[in-house]
Amino acid sequence: MAENPYIVEMRHITKRFPGIVANDDVTISVKKGEIYALLGENGAGKSTLMSMLFGMYEPDEGQILIRGKEEKIESPSYAAGLNIGMVHQHFKLVSNYTIAENIVLGMELMKKAVGIFPYVDMKSANREVAELSKQYGLEVNPTDVISDVNVSTRQRVEILKMLYRKAEILIFDEPTAVLTPQEIQSLLQIIRNLRDGGKTIILITHKLEEIRQVADRCAILRRGKLVGVYDVAGMDAKKMASLMVGHEVQLTLDKKPMQAGAAVLDVENLHVENEDGFEVVKGVSFQVRAGEIFAIAGVSGNGQTEIADAVAGLMKVSGGNIEINGTDITHFDVRKRAETGLSYIPEDRQQVGLVLDFSLEDNLALRNYYKEPFQKNSVLQRPVFHKYGNELIAKYDIRSANGNETMVRSMSGGNQQKAIVGREIEQDAPLTIFVQPTRGLDIGAIENIHRQILEERDKGKAVLLISLELDEIMQLADTIAVIYNGQFGKIAPAADFTTAEVGEYMMGVKKS
Amino acid sequence: MLNAINSVIIDGMSFTLPLFIMAIGGIYSERSGITNLALEGLQGMGAFVGALVAYILGQQLGGDSRVPFYMAMLFAMLGGCVYSMLHAFLCIRLKANQVISGVVVNILAMALTSFLTKAINRTAFGAPSDKFDLGVSDRFTVPGISKIPILGAFFTKVYPFEVIIIIAAVIAWYFLYRTRFGLRLRACGDNPAAVDAAGGDVAKTRFIAVMVSGALSGLAGMCFAYSISAKFSSDIYMGYGYLAIAGYIFGNWEILPSLFACLIFGFARSAGSEIVLAAGLPTAYSDLIMILPYALTLVLLIFFSKHNAAPHALGEIYDKAKR
Fold this sequence. Notes:
The structure holds two protein chains of two kinds. Chain A is of the alpha/beta class. In chain A, about 30% of the residues lie in helices and about 30% in strands.
């Protein structure tokens, strides 16, 4: 009998949650030593399917076979015993422990002092982690504390955790959502190395480009159902996108030529210091004109979010001037700036953009509640909130379980973002700042947000766009400024840049 | 003058050490992620159980026996430990708000122990009283070393419980920082999901941590009962539990820095009463002096609370299903 080529088989899996069928008769088979991608929009059931493989849920119907043997995976530790490991979207790391401590946690090496007192042997652990990280090309320093290292290092720690536990089947849940373009490339290389080392990789993602770069085969899920399993080699991005969304998708945007007017935002020699008194923005000057999308490209942490926060008033300016339509707003508080003519879509929509435990209608009125007719004699006018909420929900197609009354926390990321964008655009301010507007969103939602950004520009608004997604910037921007180490490397019309050139300025390799 | 310094040290240590062991109890609970405002009630309940045992044994064995003292220590730990399971059960199994649970446990301890003290005195011993007399604890002086100026005071008129506390503290330190259990316990307070993913049992670890805090607080309560008043009564609820909490916050949830904090509190208190004595002030002033450690707490917390960071997951209810 020929050896079974499939290391993982999930047959006719159905999983129901109250109100929805998360997986509906899904069957997938993964070969040993391949990179198998699971593609689908948010809520398509990819994570649920993998959670069952990892023992976090049990399927209502169907079978799971590992190495040809039927298994009932009832806990993550049982899955670990089958050499299945998972890198979660939200890292599960102890922030005040060292990298090595995190990796050995749960499988600590023990030694005995004076022959009787057992203690955790960190010396050997540090050595083993160093060896392991060298073996797989995952550079980490075992004695660094997690809170001191960056996101991509943390992710490498999560991968090492699996490898330390001798995982053979590695599940990655949206691993690139938090990474910069360069970090993504190095992660994809790590994934290829792992495959070449004989590991089996299951990659959950909604980014087509990654799949095209690394995956051997891909299964597409839509609304809990398996659409099909495809060899990646024969597929193009557009086909994958339409299978995933269920209809034709516009991957390129219709963009009208720019009709730029007078300068709306004028930033002169801006300096910003972070909490530790370290200068992160070092003398930046630029103008954003009416009807223009001005984009700041750069690797995360080079000062771009601080520029947005300084303009919006969330961070103090340590030097320089900011003007909106000729009014100096440098020392205005946040509300006064907003009223002068600024709308702001922040990077962190859950912490900064929304009050998660408030209802949708209250969140939609956050910019207006103190004005009439939302309040009369300092008493909130609920019917006005209600009516306004309904208007925005209809206009911006914000979907939620209970409309106006929905707790924003329970809404999907895409709809949370729609709510913020709707609320801010509705202010009709001459300047709108978008920071990472499509972070973590799926294709359908991204398309929607991009269309809205272009609409704002075509209405004659000035748009300041800050994004880590180079593709997004290349698609939308009229003018691009590349930031590196708190300073602009180059400011020029988008047409004068190639993607590669922007990348070089982002890395600080090229300076003008 | 030298005499005064000696008694500041002697009284300071006998107050510092019980406070310290209670702070270690609090560190265990909070480093595992369970807010523990219940220390006050735990030490009271521990002292009550220990005192009851000592009182009964004292009547059986006569005044000279040392057995009641050691049994009191043991049963105080047991009493505190068992009573702390109420807090653990409310917080971990029933997922109650940990601050409210702590306050409830405190109030219940106060009410229950003073009611039971009266009821037991009346029914079992036939004497209406609201306290259990414990008799004065032995104290010992180490020959030789105690003659060294100033340093010798640390070895003079030492309560036996001070030795017990030091041994317990060393063991507690070793378990928290060196063992597998300690590593997982501290991880539970920072990111319980990490422990869960690594195959650890968050609920069990936290339950044990709270029980440790109960046992150590019970021990502390018994020591206070012996050293401060030689009896158990509702005087035990003087806020020592809250002072211990201030101690470990000031000590940044680490054992050794917390010892330093407790030493400051202990010496502030003993130095204060020594000053009242030396100045010949009326005893009313010594009551005022007793607030010194608390006033100091306020001042210190203003300076240190900014730099100190509580365990990340402290007070958060851990729900496996929530991702």
